[in-house]
Amino acid sequence: MLDRIDIHIEVPAVPYKDLSADYMGEKSEDIRKRVVAARGIQLERFKGEKIYCNGQMKTRHIKKYCKLKEDAQGLLETAMHRLALSARAYARILKLSRTIADLECSGDISAHHISEAIQYRTLDREQ
């Protein structure tokens, strides 16, 4: 069942002292700009495809739009073997990696995109 969910992570409780600190993270408006740009990239990519975002990609789209750099290919292969990931998890990781790359306005999927996507699959690692 968990294979069908794209992102699953544990979110620990945040200590009070961290909540009350003066730390300022990235501004919401800056995050929004990145998301809007990534969505624009996806809309352009899928023009004429009858889909509009990475999450809707089928196998044929993944093969066409999720080209991996060599280091990314090796990392994903290693993760598949070590974590005993399913074919469904493989596809989810590729789609998520494509989105992470889009958020960076990167045409290629690199090892760090794959690595981040794998981190968002924590429940796969606990089986």
Class based on secondary structure composition and strand pairing = mainly alpha
Q: How would you characterize the largest beta sheet?
A: none
Shape call: globular
Distance between the termini: 12 Å
* Count of extended strands: 0
Work out the radius of gyration: 16 Å
Task: Tell me the strand percentage band.
Answer: under 5%
Number of domains: 1
In DSSP terms, counting alpha (H) and pi (I) runs of 4 or more, how many helices?
A: 7
Order of helix and strand elements from N to C terminus: HHHHHHH
Question: What does the average pLDDT come to?
Answer: 89
The CATH topology corresponds to: Helicase, Ruva Protein, domain 3
Low confidence ranges: none
Q: Which CATH class? A: Mainly Alpha
CATH architecture: Orthogonal Bundle
Helix content: 55-70%
